[in-house]
């Protein structure tokens, strides 16, 4: 089955991973800007990173017939440095016209601090001013519920947001309903250690349905698996779910969300040479 991975950090993966993803049926990747494993010290470090996301990764992906899209921001872990964050925010418009940029992300909260909240809101304002979609990171583990509520409250206070163009990622059992009930898209991230396992993600699908719900692998610097979406496909098949429902979750839903951007162009995967899972 062909699929789209809506959140996959390929800068942390080898080129061999692109080949494996293609063989598993991946036809497109959306890569949000995120932490590099260390805090960057200057706006020029982010400028070089954005060039990697807009120039290098699309070429690596194209070798295997995968379309690469990206999002730009300074991530929540580094947003505590307000001065640097504002320099990065001022620089981001330089890249918004690049062919593979879908919007602003992954913005959000890490430890739910006042500085993080300030920079989150300034990112949202930047997205609204430039008519960009938004992809949001919610905190990990014990901070997730509080951080998700803070994010939803801040988004609710902003009158310029089109909720259908916002995806709130890393939802779990205790946050998914609040995100969907507020009118946003929700993303489930499949990790072997933290966040959702494929089995838990299928539990969530069975609990809330398939509307405005996506699934991704993230595949970043920590313990992660870039082929986690096919694992979800297999778990859904094991439980007897219809192929039409599986396709909706792993292909049609992300296609619908991303297609709100004029930059998102993806040919019919039926015409693509590749290995069908």
Structural features:
277 residues; alpha/beta; eight-stranded parallel beta sheet; 9 helices; globular
| Name of the CATH superfamily | Metal-dependent hydrolases
CATH class label: Alpha Beta
Number of domains: 1
CATH topology: TIM Barrel
Question: Class by helix and strand content?
Answer: alpha/beta
Report the principal-axis shape: globular
Number of strands: 8
Report the average pLDDT across residues: 94
- Helix content estimate: 40-55%
Low-pLDDT runs of 5+ residues are: 272-277
CATH arch. level architecture: Alpha-Beta Barrel
Order of helices and strands: EHEHEHEHEHEHEHEHH
Distance between the termini: 5 Å
Q: If helices are DSSP runs of H or I spanning 4 or more residues, what is the number of helices?
A: 9
* Approximate strand percentage: 5-15%
* Radius of gyration computed on alpha carbons: 17 Å
Strand order of the largest sheet: 1-2-3-4-5-6-7-8
Largest sheet, described in full?
A: 8 strands, parallel
